[in-house]
Design goal:
The protein is 60% helix and 14% strand. It is α+β, with helices and mostly antiparallel strands and 254 residues long. Strand 2 and strand 3 form a beta hairpin.
Length: 254
């Protein structure tokens, strides 16, 4: 993959850490569009290669610990699917190592072509910290919690995280749609982005079936009707993909 472009994405995300909300939002849009365009360009180039010269399909994973680890993992599946050519899996329960200690949580696996997967893992790292931060800020001003029991409070925060992932995924889908139009407009010969990306999805699905022949499908947690889901969705649409977690979070190993 082109490491210079990956570094540019990282720099854009890092810059959003210490800037104004307006500039951070602009960086969010720019980073999302760059990731979408970068992935499609790589797919179009790779489509013209043959045999062993083609990009590899890889499986990368990210571990989420804590009481909301499973919720965060499910939330990130929306983000992965929004790009259209990768497939997310959830391992629950899963174990990770934080500061030398074994901790229970959930793990998201991202299966896809290397270029897209590597940049998506950077995005997930940022969104993990951002979702937690956004939920914490929202909860402080959420008046309904005064009448909630313990389980209801847990479900409300879980719904917020679910909505956050849905909000981010909407932004990504929009960026991918724009990038596809731009690439098709600049391509004078060869297959369309629709055909190339459909073929990539087919190849990834085939690899997924080969790697995990006994998979079962699961859905998210939310019933889709809570105000927490809507609030999380709104926060996700305003996501700042340059939270400090990109560079300062503790290393988690599986």
């Amino acid at each position: 993959m082109n490491h210079k472009k990956l570094e540019l994405i990282q720099q854009m995300l890092a810059k959003a850490e210490s800037t104004t909300p307006a500039e951070a939002e602009a960086l969010t849009e720019a980073a999302t569009k760059l990731m979408a365009r970068y992935g499609i360009d790589a797919a179009m180039i790779d489509a013209n290669k043959r045999g062993d010269s083609r990009e590899e399909i890889v499986n990368r994973n990210y571990f989420f610990s804590g009481i909301y680890g499973v919720s965060l993992a499910f939330s990130m599946t929306y983000v992965v699917r929004a790009f259209g050519t990768m497939r997310p899996l959830i391992s629950n329960p899963a174990w990770g190592v934080v500061d030398g200690k074994s901790i229970k949580g959930a793990r998201i696996h991202v299966i896809g072509y290397e270029t897209e997967v590597e940049q998506t893992m950077i995005l997930i790292t940022s969104l993990h910290m951002q979702a937690v931060s956004a939920m914490s800020s929202w909860w402080k001003s959420f008046d309904d919690k005064a009448w909630m029991g313990g389980m209801e409070k847990f479900k409300a925060r879980r719904d917020f995280i679910d909505g956050f992932g849905l909000g981010v995924s909407r932004k990504i889908k929009d960026a991918v749609a724009v990038a596809r139009v731009e690439v098709d407009a600049s391509t004078t010969s060869g297959p369309s982005t629709e055909l190339v990306l459909a073929d990539r999805k087919t190849q990834v699905d085939a690899k997924l079936a080969e790697m995990y022949p006994r998979l079962r499908n699961v859905t998210g947690f939310s019933n889709g009707g809570s105000s927490a889901l809507a609030d999380g969705h709104s926060a996700g649409k305003q996501a700042n993909i340059g939270q400090k977690g990109v560079t300062n979070r503790k290393r988690i190993e599986g």
